[in-house]
Design goal:
Radius of gyration: 19 Å
Helix content: 40-55%
Number of helices: 6
CATH topology: Beta Polymerase, domain 2
Structural class: alpha+beta
Low-confidence stretches: none
CATH architecture: 2-Layer Sandwich
Distance between the termini: 63 Å
Number of strands: 5
């Protein structure tokens, strides 16, 4: 059982309150950005949005794997996805549309980005990650708290969800044969995304001409 090393329970409670405020603020900001885009373009590129605050057990396990002491300070410094939002889009082009919207937001400050769509992980995982600093108002002052936004297509989300479930079925490392099969499935997903993007382009061009 993982447990934070802190003698101040109030310190941990305050941290979790900050994460709760951060999540609510981030969801609100994303919702406003999407609605503004939809109003101006008469099109909503987002299928759905999911959010969560990472569980203690998972966060502390990550700290231990990185070789850090299980303290509140290390949790803040080294676990960058305690607050997480996943935006699932219809098409590949929509992902980059939302990326651009977030990058140009005046409320969210970009801390870092990782484009796993252009540069997939060895496992075949594809997604676009943006780490942002979210301003929250607590105890009469403004504080910036880090959160992670993941952007995927429906197809990418489907693969990632099943890959996660399959990995947890193995008590140890996944056999190479299964790794290869999952990677091949990721390539199929990538090809499907490009095919659907092409079909969407044809439909849009057709509608512009009539």
């Amino acid at each position: 059982m993982y447990r934070l090393k802190t003698e101040n329970e109030e310190e941990l409670q305050m941290l979790m309150l900050k994460y709760e405020f951060t999540l609510k603020t981030l969801i609100t900001q994303i919702d406003l950005l999407i609605k503004e885009y939809e109003f101006n373009n008469k099109y909503n590129p987002v299928e759905h949005v999911k959010s969560r605050i990472k569980k203690h057990e998972s966060a502390l396990k990550k700290l231990e794997e990185k070789g850090y002491e299980l303290t509140v300070d290390n949790l803040v410094k080294h676990v960058h996805d305690m607050v997480g939002v996943r935006i699932v889009c219809s098409f590949l082009s929509d992902v980059y549309t939302i990326v651009n919207i977030i990058e140009n937001s005046k409320e969210l400050k970009i801390k870092g980005e990782k484009d796993y769509i252009s540069n997939p992980k060895d496992s075949g995982y594809t997604s676009y990650h943006i780490n942002v600093l979210v301003p929250i108002y607590l105890n009469g002052k403004v504080e910036e708290v880090e959160a992670e936004i993941q952007l995927r297509t429906i197809a990418m989300d489907f693969w990632a969800s099943l890959d996660h479930k399959i990995q947890y079925k193995f008590p140890k490392e996944i056999p190479n044969e299964e790794k290869k099969e999952m990677y091949n499935c990721a390539l199929d997903i990538k090809n499907l995304d490009y095919k659907m993007l092409g079909l969407n382009y044809i439909v849009n061009k057709y509608n512009e001409e009539i």
